[in-house]
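Q: My labmate handed me this sequence with no annotations at all. I'd like to see what the chain might look like in three dimensions before we decide whether it's worth expressing. Could you predict it?
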Amino acid sequence: MTVAFVVPPPGVPSGGNTYNARIAAELGALGRPVRRIEVPGSWPRPGPADREGLGRELARLPDGAGVLMDGLVACGVPEVLSPHADRLRIVTLVHLPLADETGLSPGVAADLDARERAVLGMTGVVATSRWAARRLADHHGLARVHHVAPGTDPAPLAPGADGVSRLLCVASVTPRKGHDLLLDALSRLDEPTWECVCVGPVGRGAYADRVRALAEASGARLSGALTGADLESAYAAADLVVLPSRAETFGMAVTEALARGVPVVAARVGGVPEALGRGPGGDRPGILVDPEDADALGEALRRWLTDPRLRERLRTSARRRRSQLAGWRETARAMGAVLDREGCR
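A: Here is what I predict for the chain of 345 residues:
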């Protein structure tokens, strides 16, 4: 049976959009057809017309149909899902709990959290890391939450620049991704021999303006969104990948770095330690620092820039970790098993 996959329009590059696209493609390659249904709207807080549009799409699906829904669409509108929860086999894919997005007022966060709880209580639930699955189960009182981690494509080892100085951050410029912390940390470094490139969409507004100013002051460069060969080139030139997020359910940039043998410095948040993992010898292929701590982040970067033994140890562990990374076909098989268990046959 074809599975309907309800997603927001892809828009700017993001981990969630990549996950959705790859899952749909790989499930199809495994003989499990997927029909993408893109629903426009300002999710997770859509206007009336967008709510009605989603309701119409769900109403068109036959009784018993299997439906995988991106949590960004599903979790904010329990009143739209409720009329269809008993007749459809709905599984909600939570990329990020709604209230974990930074910059929300307490009232908005509480409302989104309550809406998400209502939705997840009436559907199957799958998260993108073990950590996120445990958190959703504990926070919302759910008996079962599946987890299906993102896959990683095999990639050649990154030659890097000089093995030391090229730093790369791959993340959309939003408060949750912590570019301000990274640029603050860089501005405190005495070591002049570094270059930092931040790859990711840069939006409008006060935070984006602040990050632009910090980048100019520190000497870092904002490249904007890169895809395809341009993104591959950015990873290939990297000596170290940095992810200073304030919240993260997994952290696909971490495994993308490790697939190329590039060590990582990242905030110890959410599923990032799970993504970073440990090499066959038990060593971490990177450094984890406390979130929201520009001093700790700066010290980790200083150690990387000044300690050749540390660099060699992390680089060796990162290269060993490559062989442990699961591919997208394995991810699709795991998602197919979840859909089966939830009755989406």
